[in-house]
Design brief:
The structure holds 2 protein chains of 2 kinds. By secondary structure, chain A is of the alpha/beta class. Chain A is built from 15 helices and 11 strands. In chain A, helix 4 packs across helix 5 and helix 5 crosses helix 6. The chains are: A alpha/beta, B alpha/beta. Bound molecules: adenosine-5'-triphosphate, adenosine-5'-diphosphate (ADP), iron/sulfur cluster (2 copies) and magnesium ion (2 copies).
Chain lengths: 331, 326
């Protein structure tokens, strides 16, 4: 069952007199007990989409639904929403106040929401986050903790409100290789023990492979491919997903895309990836007769369904041909 | 001659609250045209090692051992000689270097700075060299007139690499050159570094906590733990067949996408990194080691031969690596 959902969400910002379409038409659903990874390069709109799902950003158009009900933006409704959907921040050092003890950091949420039994909530959140026995950590300050322990405190702070969904923005990017696996294992355990859902925002495909059920690949404000992790990460259909996978260290033939992360104030016409697309550049799109479409044919906004889907003229033409001539294609 | 050779290098930071031994006896060698990766978690002494190579450490650091650059000891050089060596023979790309550029100076002037200091080029000649360097790192010549804030993180890192290349050094030390960058930009910077080494026969020391990135870029790997090298050898062997339990834990931390063994099974290493001011006795890794023996808590272990003895040297500092088993 769908718990948290973005429906045709657009988020625009004014940027130096121009309109930045940071999120430009996205459908995305996180089911109960499901872990979804949102991947894509820096600046593609991942954090903006995540903030919108948390109610921290109001969509320019489209809507956010929780449990099937559209999110209202009164302060009371938002407060209720944030108890259910909790944010885990990118950088544990930056998101903890150096003068607060671990207890105070974790008790902040329960205090804001005036929940009874604060001490028990803090203790159980800390031990769920793997800081055991919790009492031993109550009086410590962030500087007395390792990077991994600080990230656990941040996660405990989110757990203290007993939410049903965690939205984690690059939860391990600032952590060392050795603690990274521990924090990811914790997210899996929380799902197993509490049935927690999670949306994990990252540019790390290994992380998606490690913990996510489903992956959505974002490019310049749109989701260009999504589906089950096993499927998308082992046989990607979108040229952008293919390129992302090809630059992993163990890959043999990297497709290093040139240029810089694209600009949301100048989204190209047609397929927004076309100025950098290696399939178009190699002539493969022309061979399939779709190069004209690449440059000017609008692509639909993908629905939020759970199956594999891709927004690419070339992939579409190939699968159409595949259906028409299954025999020859399989040879 | 070996381009760079470290012999028993040790660095200790002297502090009011006691001494911090950050690097504790490291011996390594690097040939021209070779790339060596140095891996290890935060605090293991990687940056201290890098800074010591050009004597860039703060004053409270005391250094011992030998750092032979083309046979000449950096530690005993005169200041004049050291100035000549910096940039011209060896240069450093710092950790977090994207923030190290001067915000109010034009990019071209900053790249030309080492040329000017070393009297290698001025005026039109320097400008030509800057254009050439920008081209080498894949930036258009007009960027020379721009300022750092106009660049993305990846572009700034390229400018730092252009600066490091300015005086055609024979050794480049790059400390976490891609850690803050996103995957595609990281791939751009890494392929740039790889092609520069191949084309110019530069020796490279690259530092990172991501073993998979190092393995894909470097010929050899050295894994550091608590200020020591605990394993060193050919990249492939250390990355896929590490003999030290810590190397294995680092390698497993980054899964291979598509590998069924790591699907829904993230792997980490329990426990906390050691505090260099209070190091565990015996093998420093023993409190976190999944295969430690009783003796590990009291008996230190030196590097031992770990390869099959036929190929390039491979060593690891663990009791489970016995000389006979090779
Ligand atoms: N408040 C804002 N005002 C103007 N532009 C913004 C604002 N917030 C985000 N943007 C722009 O929207 C785009 C998407 O930003 P976002 O932070 O969502 O990216 P991201 O995918 O999370 O990137 P990263 O991987 O670097 O965290 C970027 O181009 C960014 O510069
Ligand atoms: N200027 C300094 N004064 C005192 N201690 C330092 C200084 N710089 C680094 N250290 C300590 O030396 C150890 C190694 O640090 P560093 O070389 O930066 O490690 P790495 O680069 O592997 O993360 C750490 O314990 C660090 O706290
Ligand atoms: S639609 Fe065309 S340009 Fe876009 S990703 Fe597909 S092949 Fe490339
Ligand atoms: S020497 Fe002992 S403690 Fe150290 S790595 Fe080997 S088994 Fe583990
Ligand atoms: Mg972000
Ligand atoms: Mg460092």
């Amino acid at each position: 069952m769908t718990l948290l959902e973005a429906r045709d969400v657009r988020v625009e910002f004014a940027s130096r007199g121009r309109r930045a379409r940071a999120v430009d038409g996205v459908n995305l659903a996180v089911g109960e007990g499901e872990i979804v990874a949102l991947v894509g390069e820096s600046g593609c709109g991942k954090t903006t989409l995540a903030r919108t799902l948390l109610g921290l950003e109001r969509p320019t158009s489209g809507s956010v639904h929780y449990g099937g009900v559209p999110l209202a933006y009164s302060s009371r409704a938002l407060r209720a929403h944030r108890r259910e959907v909790q944010l885990v921040l990118q950088d544990p050092t930056g998101s903890l106040n150096p003068r607060h003890t671990v207890y105070e950091a974790v008790a902040e949420g329960p205090r804001i929401h005036r929940l009874p039994g604060e001490g028990d909530l803090v203790a159980s959140a800390l031990s769920r986050a793997g800081l055991r026995p919790p009492e031993r950590f109550f009086d410590r300050h962030p500087h007395e903790l390792s990077g991994g322990q600080r990230q656990r405190v941040v996660i405990a702070g989110a757990l203290a409100l007993e939410p049903r969904v965690l939205v984690a923005d690059e939860p391990v990017a600032s952590l060392d290789a050795s603690v990274r696996g521990e924090i990811l294992a914790l997210l899996l355990r929380l799902r197993a023990e509490l049935g927690l859902s999670a949306l994990v925002v990252t540019h790390d495909l290994g992380l998606a492979w490690n913990i996510a059920d489903r992956v959505a690949v974002m490019y310049l404000g749109r989701i260009v491919e999504s589906g089950p992790v096993e499927r998308i990460l082992t046989s990607p259909s979108h040229p952008y997903t293919q390129a992302l996978l090809s630059v992993l260290p163990e890959s043999r033939s990297p497709v290093v895309l040139g240029g810089e992360p694209p600009d949301p104030t100048r989204i190209p016409a047609g397929c927004r990836f076309h100025p950098r697309c290696q399939v178009l550049a190699s002539g493969a799109a022309a061979e399939a007769g779709v190069d004209g479409l690449c440059a000017s044919g609008e692509l639909p906004v993908l629905p939020s369904s759970a199956g594999s889907q891709v927004a690419c003229h070339h992939a579409e033409a190939r699968s159409a041909r595949h259906e028409a001539e299954p025999e020859t294609e399989r040879l | 001659m070996t381009l760079l050779e470290l012999r028993d290098l040790a660095v200790t930071y002297r502090g009011e609250t006691g001494d911090v031994p950050a690097v504790r006896g490291v011996s390594l060698g690097l040939e021209a045209g070779e790339a060596l990766g140095v891996a290890g978690e935060s605090g293991s002494g990687k940056s201290t090692l890098a800074m010591s190579l050009l004597r860039l450490l703060p004053r409270n650091a005391s250094v011992s051992g030998e750092i032979l650059l083309d046979g000449e000891d950096v530690l005993t050089m005169s200041w004049g000689r050291l100035r000549a060596v910096r940039w011209a023979s060896a240069s450093l790309v710092f950790q977090g270097a994207q923030h190290a550029l001067n915000p109010v100076r034009r990019i071209g002037d900053q790249i030309a700075e080492p040329l000017r200091v070393h009297g290698m080029a001025t005026g039109a000649e320097a400008r030509r060299r800057v254009t050439e360097l920008l081209e080498q790192v894949g930036l258009p010549a007009w960027r020379a007139r721009g300022y750092p804030h106009e660049l993305s993180g990846g572009q700034r890192q390229r400018v730092m690499i252009a600066m490091a290349l300015a005086c055609s050094p024979r050794l480049i030390v790059a400390d976490e050159p891609t850690t803050a960058l996103d995957v595609m930009i990281q791939a751009q910077v890494l392929s740039l570094i790889r092609s520069l080494i191949a084309e110019h026969g530069i020796g490279l020391i690259m530092i990172s906590h991501d073993l998979s990135v190092l393995a894909s870029t470097c010929d050899r790997l050295a894994v550091m733990y608590a200020g020591r090298v605990v394993e060193s050898g050919p990249s492939r062997e250390v990355f896929t067949g590490g003999r030290h339990p810590y190397s294995r834990a680092l390698a497993e931390a980054f899964p291979t996408v598509g590998d069924p063994a790591s699907r829904m099974a993230p792997k980490g290493l329990g426990g906390d990194p050691p505090d260099p001011a209070h190091l565990p006795t015996g093998c420093s890794f023993h409190p976190r080691c999944p295969v430690s023996l009783v003796s590990c808590a009291s008996e230190p272990v030196e590097l031992r031969v770990a390869g099959d003895g036929t190929g390039a040297p491979h060593t690891a500092a663990c009791v489970h690596v016995s000389e006979e088993s090779r």
